[in-house]
Design a protein that fits this description.
This protein is α/β, with parallel strands linked by helices and 310 residues long. The chain is built from eight helices and twelve strands. This is Beta-lactamase domain-containing protein.
Length: 310
């Protein structure tokens, strides 16, 4: 390699590096859905190379002292883009990074906030749930996203919540609450008292089919309690931001209640899990996005849960 050729290589790599930095600093689009509450709308899709794992709603709350991040997206790159969105709004430090539950689309951007030295916050059950799935989650992420997953890692909570707890962002108290096993066994909601904004994590799916990775009966109990909180604004884990939440919660409750009812009936009739999966809830297909990806899995989960109750 002569000197001119070597320089061309150097210039080429500098250009690539600049392009990478520029890309990583592109801010994730966010909407201020209530004063101080900024949310990003994820794609209503499963994670792919094309969407870069950006499929969950994520966001942040800004106080007078510091910022709390609520879920960080499906990759380090998305976490960095969320951080850039925060920097476009405020120079205040990020003091909390809250994970609403263990799923990859909500946690894999955590590493983007490492240098901010925040408290990483989650349910007391989050660390164990992440640890037992870490290898599978990493493998699936690399398989599904390829190079878009680069640098993504699981960062465990440093502050845990069991029941309720509050954090103070300066002039803004945020209440964190854990729930009976529902979407997962480590669901946590975030409630901004000042604006009455509830970040439900995946306890609420809007338009996208609810995914049962915990307990259908527990979820039905939690829905009744979420209704009692009567928030002014809601950020669901998936689907449109700040929807007419009564209707959205009703639709989710009806799907889960019908699922439990039909699975119980199938078990009573002596049907196998296979028969239940082939027959139950197929008329829901047109009501939900991602039905083909998750409905059968939900029937399987409900069957496993309800099989032994009689
Ligand atoms: Zn989830």
């Amino acid at each position: 390699m002569n000197i001119a050729s070597a320089w061309r290589h150097v210039v080429f790599f500098i250009l690539i590096a600049c392009a990478t930095i520029a890309r990583s600093e592109t801010a994730l689009p966010v909407t201020q859905i209530a004063p101080g509450n900024y949310a990003h709308r994820g794609h209503d899709e499963v994670a792919t190379r094309e969407n870069g794992g950006d499929i969950a709603n994520v966001g942040f709350i800004v106080g007078t002292r510091c910022v709390a991040v609520i879920d960080t997206g499906g990759t380090l790159a998305e976490g960095r883009a969320l951080r850039a969105a925060i920097r476009a709004v405020t120079t205040l430090p990020v003091c909390y990074v809250i994970n609403t539950h263990m799923h990859p689309d909500h946690i894999f951007g955590n590493a983007a906030f490492k240098d901010d030295h925040p408290q990483f916050v989650g349910s007391t059950k989050l660390a164990q749930a992440e640890a037992s799935r870490a290898d599978n989650y990493m493998r699936a992420l690399n398989r599904e996203l390829g190079s878009a997953a680069a640098g993504s890692e699981i960062i465990m909570p440093t502050k845990t919540i069991d029941g309720t707890g509050t954090i103070d962002l300066g002039g803004r108290t945020v209440t964190l609450r854990t729930w009976k096993t529902a979407h997962t066994n480590n669901d946590l909601t975030v409630y901004d008292e000042k604006s009455g904004t509830l970040w439900t994590g995946d306890l609420l799916f809007v338009r996208c089919i609810p995914v049962v990775d915990g307990s259908v009966l527990g979820w039905l109990d939690d829905i009744a309690r979420i209704r009692q909180m009567n928030p002014r604004h809601v950020v669901p884990g998936h689907g449109p931001l700040d929807p007419p939440w009564h209707q959205s919660l009703d639709a989710e409750e009806r799907y889960l209640a019908d699922l439990a009812r039909d699975v119980r009936a199938a078990i009573k009739r002596g049907e196998t899990i296979r028969q239940a999966v082939d027959n139950i809830g197929l008329d829901e297909k047109d009501k939900w996005l991602l039905f083909d990806n998750y409905h059968r899995r939900n029937v399987t989960a409900a069957y496993a849960e309800l099989e032994w109750e009689q």
